[in-house]
Amino acid sequence: MIQYVWLVPVFPLIGFLINGLLGKKISKNTVSLVGPGSVGLSFAWVLGCFWEYLHLPAKAKPVEVFVFNWITSGTFNAQAAFLVDPLSLVMLLVVSGVGFLIHIYSVGYMHDDPGYARYFSYLNLFVVNMLILVMANNFLLMFVGWEGVGLCSYLLIGYWYEKQSASDAGKKAFVVNRIGDFGFLLGIFLIFYTFGTVNFREVFAQAHNFPVGSAILTIITLCLFVGATGKSAQIPLYTWLPDAMEGPTPVSALIHAATMVTAGVYMVARCSALYVMAPISMTVVAVIGLATAFMAASIGLAQNDIKRVLAYSTVSQLGYMFLACGVGAFVAAIFHLMTHAFFKALLFLGSGSVIHGMHGEQDMRKMGALKNKMPITYAVMLVGTLAIAGIFPFAGFFSKDEILFKALTDGHVGYWAIASLGAMMTAFYMFRLIFMTFYGEKRWDHHVHPHESPPVMTIPLIILAILSTVGGFVGIPLIQGWNVFHEFLAPSIAHVAAGHEVHHSMTFEVMMMLVSMGVAGIGIFIAYKMYIKQPELPAQVTAKVPGLYDLIYNKYYVDEIYDATVVEPIKNGSVFLWQEADSKVIDGAVNGTASVVDRLSLVIRKLETGYVQNYALGILIGVAVITGYYLGR
Amino acid sequence: MEIPISYYLILSSALFAIGTVGVLIRRNAIIIFMSIEMMLNAVNLSLVAFSDLHRSIDGQMLVFFVMVVAAAEVAVGLALIYVIFRNKGNVYVDELNIMKW
Amino acid sequence: MSIDIPTICLTNIGPLITLSVAGLLLLLFDAFSGKAMKKAHFHQFSLVAVVIALLQTVWLWNRQTTDFSRMIYVDNFSFFFNVIFLLGTGISIILSVHYLENYRKNYGEYYALMLFAAVGMILMAAGGNLVIIFLGVEILSIPIYILSGLFREDLKSNEAALKYLLLGAFSSAFLLFGIAMLYGGTGTFYLADLAAFIKKSGMNGFTYVGMGLLIVGFGFKVSMAPFHMWTPDVYEGAPTSITAFMSVGTKAAAFAAFLRVFLEVFPTVRMEWDLLLWVAAVATMTVGNVTALAQTNIKRMLAYSSIAHAGYILVGLIAGNQLGATGILYYLLAYTIMNLGAFGVVIAVARKKDNYLNIYDYAGLGFQYPGLAAVMSVFLFSLVGMPPTAGFLGKFYLFSAAVEAGYIWLVIIAVINSLISVYYYLRITVIMYMQPAEADLGPVAMTPVVNATLIISALAVLLIGIFPGSIFQLAMNSVKIFGS
């Protein structure tokens, strides 16, 4: 089957063509069959390939499947060929598997939308491009997928174009992403310039001949990382992702949580052979990832829109993945990418189910007490939240713990401390979300009648919940030989030159696990205090009631200290970060550049006076400069 | 005494420059046209001079082509100017700026 | 005494003969035929001529020779450009028919002039002698001056034609002066002899000035800054079908001559011109892209965009290597198809008599005319340079050629520029798909032939983007003449 792996993107491509060209002529049922069905076929095919790959002799791995010569010239060669190796297989499984579930979910979620066929054609096209992105065997083909997913993301964010905010968000995503693409493209040119090829395996094989820390590799990897920050929403290019929540919720789940935004992480992991040769770039990646993880988590504390909380959480989790890459734990990054795909898709789809049941309401302040109205949604959301908070034995525990551990052992104690703080905030805001949505008293309007979603939506949720529960067990640490994931992925990943292969004692590892669980526990506890036990507390906090509490009488004294010393500053800080840093500085910079160009445009166009003699003067000036240049030498 | 090549070239350049200035400062499209003709003929002069210098006929051959081209350009140009005059009532190039920016 | 009659092979200029004769016949028909047959058959007749010329061109593949006492090159380079020109001319003729009928301007001379212009283009690409190249420039330009002013009653058209004529004549005076200087410095007009002279004796004052003025002359035709200023006005004022024709034809022809002269005659003194062109290319791209941002008239926007594209192509010329030359050929072919396609959509959307040329008139097109909007999107994405379209690969070839030659900064600037260009191209797509139609502007008139042409062009843009191999090989073969 591997020899026909090119069929994997072809199935959804056919789906795209059918839905896109005939969408208006075929029935809704056919669309619902073709859209998810084509992705399902891809998933089945990927499973087959995976099975076959496991049974291939070691010599035959990895497999490169040549399709046709895309670009060939004397010095330059880029094939349309697919690389099947552990890394791409993991990505393929995630993309097609999660993609398939989300397609099914969409059948229910988008059922009443007038643009049903258009929606599925975009979604299929997205899957095509995403599959090309992860299967490409060279940078240029990867770039094709990279641009393609960007385009689809833009089309899907702006899907409800009647909403001004939606089409603005789409435009913003596209423009910001192009800045990242610029870096990526430049990186590709530099790779071609340096190595004379863009094929992954040839480039990586040559990379070893360079000295560690050589300038050109550092520049190349930094350029590639600029591309990654755009697509994976890292500082400073992350602002588009929260806005991207204007798209339909399944889109947020598929593109802006599970797959496309992780493309940057995938790319960095794919280029691990380059990154390990460039320590400076590694540090940059780690620091940017860490800063993003922390900043986004703190912003997440103050959001009331259920999807925005999840959006910032996505940004933050992507930061963790980059942190892992930055400290050389590429496998941990991919591991977290996979588990994140499960639980974040679950959370987004769950929130979609909530929104669906609440007739489009997204403000958590207008929810509450939905636990009994939507039991399945509640249960799966809880699973997802436990997973993201990193509670044993849910999937997120293993992956996040591994990242934190590597940050401590291979990175710096500061990395670990900040990352742990971020993890605490994650636990806090995620449980805040759960508590505000499902617990407490009902705050919805009387004309809203919350209801559970139909099975076509809940079944994918349940499957994802199962994956979020058990998905972590493929990468059990501690015991030799049990970390299947690590061993499977090892051939695709380069390692930092082994200088300190220190083996940490099992006790130490277990201790670190307990610490990270404890950190998450603190976050959950604070959330519990504030949103269950004392639901009026958040209100008091925001109102800043300056009441003096009796030291003996007031049992909330501890809470007060929390408020005063931890929560309030963080909240203020997070509001500040969100309003000032996010909206003003970064948006300002993006808009500012745009407006400078705009103004420049208004100035330059004035040169076109419309007078023919001014144009002649322009020519004459050109003549004078050129002849002057030649005669004056 | 034979006239040195530089004399021809200086004359030709001067004529070319006069033509250029004419294009830049005159308002009337017809005069601008005449200035362009002057530029072309300045080039013709230098071509003939070079032809003589190199003892090759090629330069003079080009002169004939330039004359033909110039005639064709004038034919088209005058027709255009005529049309514009009919539409606008004058042929001042500084009043021809509907399109700009 | 015996007279040597030079041996000439007329098939070598077969396409030229066909086009010229067809043009002359068209003029005669127009003058002597009844009204009834005029409308129906002129464009068909000219299309047949173009097709015959195309077939004759195919006949010329791989001849690699010169003819007419070395005046004409018959090589793959001119073969490739012949294909581009004839393709451009053919598509322009198809796009013109309906447009002209709306204006009641479906004259025979329109098509005849187009064919004559094509003759000029072919001469520019095939010229082995500066005289031929100069004549090519003029044979190309004069018909286009007339065609720009085709709408005699329309002041905009008048203005465009006069501006183009004055500035074109002005710049060809400089081109001619440059040719004279090169002649003065070397004593020959033949490209091959010029190259040999410069290789042997290096540059002197005359050849320096001559080379500089050639840059001016060709720069004007390709709309390189600072000689680009005519472009927006002329493109806006000229009939849209002519704008389409000259945006691809003139540019391709001028680049053909530019490439041939600079890579054949002046490759040994590259250091003398690459800096100048570097600055000019950067200015061209930047001015084109930045100014295009502020445009709301789509013809004007496409005019600035064509300036920007000239800048990208100059990047390949500056690189000056095989890959760069190949990239230019590939890009010009891609540009011909995508730009003509975009103009075809513009003609259709403008409806009767160019009523709707504002970019906001495209609102809601994605729902009213999904097919038209889809092909327009393909063309726009290709102009942006999004994979997997031909525009992406073209840019990739050009830029990687420059990288290979070591012009990293130029490539960075070019990439930033294509980033800027996303904005104004994308705006059209956004308007088409994400804004509801303001009002019903009336039906878009499409004939089956135009439909087919647009669809085939869009498919071609995708196809040569995904399978560029054969086109690239063809282009490679065509530039083998330029050493390395």
At CATH level 3, the topology of chain B is: Helix Hairpins
Which structural class is indicated by helix and strand composition of chain C? Answer: mainly alpha
Give a count of the beta strands of chain C, DSSP E runs of length 2 or more. Answer: 2
Question: What separation lies between the terminal Cα atoms of chain B?
Answer: 57 Å
Quaternary class: heterotrimer
Task: Based on Cα principal axes, name the global outline of chain B.
Answer: elongated
CATH class of chain B: Mainly Alpha
**How far is the first residue's CA from the last residue's CA of chain C?**
45 Å
Query: Rough shape of chain C?
Result: globular
Number of helical runs of chain C? 19
Query: Average pLDDT of chain B, to the nearest integer?
Result: 92
Secondary-structure-based class of chain B equals mainly alpha
Please tell me about this protein's structure:
The complex is a heterotrimer of chains A (633), B (101) and C (484). Chain A has helices spanning 7-22, 28-54, 86-109, 116-135, 139-157, 164-195, 200-207, 215-231, 240-243, 249-258, 263-270, 272-275, 279-300, 306-326, 330-357, 375-389, 395-411, 413-438, 455-470, 484-489, 506-533, 537-543, 557-605, 612-631, and strands spanning 63-72, 77-84. With 633 residues, chain A is mainly α. In chain A, a hairpin with a 4-residue loop joins strand 1 (63-72) and strand 2 (77-84). Chain A is globular and about 85 Å long. Mean pLDDT of chain A is 82; it is low at 545-560. By secondary structure, chain B is mainly α. In chain B, helix 1 (5-25) runs antiparallel to helix 2 (29-54) and helix 2 runs antiparallel to helix 3. Chain B has helices at residues 5-25, 29-54, 58-88. Chain C is mostly helical. In chain C, 76% of the residues lie in helices and 1% in strands. Chain C is built from 19 helices and two strands. Chain C has helices at 14-32, 35-59, 76-103, 108-126, 130-148, 155-186, 191-201, 205-222, 230-237, 240-264, 270-292, 298-319, 322-350, 365-368, 370-384, 390-404, 408-434, 448-466, 469-478; strands spanning 65-67, 72-74. Chains A and C meet through strand 1, helix 5, helix 6, helix 23 and helix 24 of A and helix 6, helix 8, helix 9, helix 11 and helix 13 of C.
